[in-house]
Amino acid sequence: MSRETELLRTLLDTSKLISSNFPIQTVIRRITGKLRTLLGADECSIMILDENSRELAFCESSGLSEWEKENIRFKLGEGIAGWVARNRKPALVEDVSSDPRFVSYPRQRRKMVSMICAPLNIRRRLIGVLSLTTRESGHVFTPDELERVVLIAAHISLAMENHRLYELSVLDGLTNIYNRRYLEQRLGKEMAYARRFRKPLSVLLLDIDFFKRLNDTYGHQAGDHALREVSDTLSATLREYDVVARYGGEEFAVILPATPRTIGATIGERLRLAVEQHPFRYRDKVLPVTISLGVASFPEDGGSPEEVLRAADRALYRAKQAGRNQVALS
46 vs 60, 123, 228, CA distance in Å? Predict the structure, then answer.
């Protein structure tokens, strides 16, 4: 198969990956792996612009060591990748070591030979940089290869922007966990799966206790801090396949797939204890934060998402009426 045919196939595969249901990290990993093999590169990397530090950091790389991926960062204008990011222009470098833009870094293992860098742009916004480097192979990149990489970079930019927009639609802006809209859609799918395969499913609804008092006493910024800390604590305590979302205000919801009521109550108690024991420090104060939880299950408490959520809400109400900082079953 000719190089031209292989390049066209890679473009087609890239388009298919972008339109697939694979997670964005999987899509990027497969594309960088394909490009590295196709163009005879020793390394193929995607660096993302950190909006806060205005530095480029590795998002995915095929061929780099873990140390390099975790520790190397470039400021805008620094190194060849930084130059490409600042100027929003691609670069073809036939001899990296003699290029005035080249910057070496600690623990650099092997001499670079040739390099292609292309910016990842969406309209006028820079996302990052796609780069390919040769070392041992000695291959020197060509203008034709640069042209193809620029085209693939445009596809990658589109995939990453679509992913960003999707996350904006399903994630809560303050806590960075799922929002109510996603939770309700996901619960419908999980219940359909549970019904089809005759599996149990449990749902937790939980409130931060006396949240209005916390806001009034310490201020709304302290309240926001508490919401973020609670969401982080829940996420860290739950199992990998559980789904946690901010359900509204100071209320959170958790889907526990393949989980009967008794185990759901145990997980609820684990969450309650994790929050109770977490030091909610804000500035020079420790915030008094606890949660109350209600547990409901499918099929015992209903056959639809709405019925199960209502049952969990009733259980949550009982937990609060009984004194808060506890778990109640439907």
Answer: 5, 18, 29
Domain co-membership, 34 together with 157: yes
Confirm if 46 and 32 have CB atoms less than 8 A apart: yes
Pair 18, 28: CB distance under 8 Å: no
Per-residue model confidence as pLDDT tens digits over 146-155: 998 998 899 8
Return the structure tokens found at 103: 């910057």
H-type alpha helices, 2-127: 3-18, 24-38, 66-71, 79-87
Q: What pLDDT, on the 0 to 100 scale, is given for residue 163?
A: 81
Distance CA 234, CA 313 (A): 18
What pLDDT is attached to residue 166? Answer: 82
Last residue of a domain, one of 118, 151, 170: 170
Note if 250 is an active site residue. Answer: yes
Mean residue pLDDT across the chain: 91
**Strand partners of residue 46:** 60, 130
pTM of the model: 0.68
3-class secondary structure, 77: coil
Low-confidence ranges of the chain (pLDDT < 50): none
Residue 243 is predicted with a pLDDT of 97
| Separation of alpha carbons 313 and 330, rounded Å | 9
Q: Domains in the chain: how many in total?
A: 2
For residue 1, count CB atoms less than 10 angstroms from its CB and return exposed for 0-12, middle for 13-18, buried for 19 or more: exposed
Residue tagged active-site, from 136, 167, 250, 300: 250
